[in-house]
Amino acid sequence: MSFLSATLSRVKPSPTIAVSNKxxxxxxxxxxxxxxxxxxxDFDTPAHIRAAGIxxxxxxxxxxxxxxxxxxxxxxxxxxxxxDNGLDYTPAQxxxxxxxxxxxxNALMATLNPGDEVVIPAPYWVSYPDMVLLAGGxxxxxxxxxDVGFKLTxxxxxxxxxxxxxxxxxxxxxxxxxxxxxxxxxKGLTDVxxxxxxxxxxxxxxxxxLVYDDFTFCTPAEVEPGLYPRTLTTNxxxxxxxxxxxxxxxxxxxxELIAAMRKVQSQSTSxxxxxxxxxxxxxxxxxxxxxxxxNAAFVRRRDLVVEMLNKAExxxxxxxDGAFYVYPSIAGCIGKTTPKGTLIxxxxxxxTALLEETGVAVVFGAAFGVSPNFRVSYxxxxxxxxxxxxxxxxxxxxxx
Length: 400
Ligand SMILES: Cc1ncc(COP(=O)(O)O)c(C=O)c1O
What we know:
Its EC number is 2.6.1.1. By secondary structure, the chain is of the alpha/beta class.
């Protein structure tokens, strides 16, 4: 019998981290590798937020805090929900964790029993199904293809719900597609949920502030106040505030659920880093103008990547509403062969050949539950993106 737990055997390591590791290994061996796999902004944490972290160190804010966050951060989070989403939450309805990932993990650990189903629209962020499995639940992926803009339709949601459904995990704008739900699209989904009172919503609003053109972000409890008592609204400072390494995520929801999540955290990691919490207070309460500046760069890069990838033979790349990802289809490349003789039969073989033959690291679509596609993170310098897309174009043109 294996020394490792049976639970662990059900989950796989994060494929996005695996791609980054492989690219790093090739780079260390001297290869000219461009990594488009990592899901984080290339901008530094803004100076005023860094200063708040330094100040926390200098003023001795370096001890244990309350398990689920300092009062100052909870009140900044309540103010954020009111300001940005029109949602009223009290500090007792708020919890802070070491990143958005831990928030979601705590919620699933706190609520799932064997047999409980969690509806997850695909393409999904790679961690959702594995976190559900780790918590003993059953992920129910609902495929939402390029034909429906990679978005869950009310009909598909209705069909996926069973008496065992406990949660719908909702993510807009989405990792990996950047697709965002309009208010009326979201209302179509919340109308379905109103007919199924046993289903709760876990909304992952991590990319709320990274939206472009005239897209307006909205979140389930705001669109359908009737869902407020069974919605966990999760968010974090990682992406919009360029704070991925600081590890602060947060959520708001019903007091009993928040207390249960606190219990999980109290017996695992305890409080998130005290210094990061003070930096997050400044992030949420301080100036936000840098977000518009960063977004201008993201839009420019998105447009560059979409245009160049659509010119690559066999690729189709929709224009996303937000986040910093594109999710092109490689349907036109399937069945072709690379100059080195590799048959492109899946998006995984495409991504592997692209990395090995051109040095461009992307994440294959099967990791996100919808194929044949790949994910590009365009949170990197324009020149790097131009070079990477040129290599992708050359690679696609070389297939026969
Ligand atoms: C959709 C989504 N949710 C949550 C997270 C986790 O964020 P954090 O780094 O705060 O744990 C990510 C990070 O990639 C993400 O893309």
